[in-house]
Each structure stands twice: as structure tokens, then as C-alpha cells.
Design goal:
Elements: H1 2-22, H2 26-45, H3 56-65, H4 85-100, H5 107-131
Helix pairs in contact: 1-2, 1-5, 2-3, 2-4, 2-5, 3-4
Length: 132
């Protein structure tokens, strides 16, 4: 149930990001996409075991490692979801720039954020359907 509600929240954030894109608010797109990605990673990982909530860099690291999907996956070397490491880190850094430093973003960056976030949500949605 928590997984589904987080995926639904992620999808709503993504839809909001698309509205912001159409309105020309590219910084808003980046922010909404980041939080859509955060909710998606939270859906995959569940609640953290040692803290009340996931810290931003920690959730990326734990997600990319992939042991939530395959507990037997190696704890050394590239993560099972390594292909998302740099895009998620870039999205996090962009989100800091727009939310804390009020930096403008371009249409190109906004479109990249939308595409990457959509891929992440689809990936986790497919895993969720596979395991249910």
C-alpha cells in the first residue's frame, strides 16, 4: 500500500512538472521532478531502518545499490541500478540550485529532467508489477 501511494505521488509530481514545463517554469520542473524521483526511490526502498526519513544522498546511494530488489546482489562494485546514479545525483544538484540559489533552468534541462524521471517511475512501476 505504501509503495503504491508513493508511486501515485511520484506520478502526480511528474504531471505537475509537465504543467510547469508548458507554463515555462523550468526551475519548477526540476524541483517537481526531483521530488517525484525521491518518492519513487522511497517506494522501492521502503522506510529507512535507522532514521525517521531518508536523507537525500543516502536514498540515492541505497537505491542505486539495488539490494532492495535483489538482496543477494554484491555490496561491492557497481550497483544494480548504476545507470541511475549520475542522473539522480545531477537532478539532486539541479534541485539545490533552483530551490536554494534561485538559478534559472533551460527548456533542455527541464526536458531532460522529465524524461529521466519518467524512466525511473516506469522502471519501479514495472518491478512493482513483476513482484505483485
Amino acid at each position: 500500500m505504501i509503495i503504491q501511494s508513493r508511486l501515485e505521488a511520484a506520478s502526480q509530481f511528474l504531471e505537475g512538472a509537465k504543467v510547469l514545463r508548458d507554463a515555462g517554469d523550468y526551475a519548477g520542473v526540476v524541483s517537481r521532478c526531483y521530488y517525484a524521483a525521491y518518492q519513487t526511490m522511497g517506494a522501492a526502498l521502503g522506510d529507512p531502518t535507522s532514521k525517521r526519513r531518508w536523507e537525500h544522498i543516502g536514498i540515492i546511494q541505497s537505491f542505486v545499490r539495488g539490494r532492495w530488489d535483489d538482496p543477494t546482489y554484491s555490496i561491492t562494485g557497481p550497483g544494480l541500478y548504476e545507470r541511475f546514479r549520475f542522473p539522480l545525483r545531477r537532478l539532486y544538484d539541479l534541485r539545490l540550485r533552483v530551490d536554494y540559489h534561485v538559478e534559472p533552468m533551460t527548456l533542455e534541462i527541464a526536458d531532460w529532467a522529465l524524461e529521466m524521471t519518467q524512466e525511473l517511475i516506469q522502471t519501479i512501476g514495472n518491478i512493482e508489477r513483476r513482484t505483485s
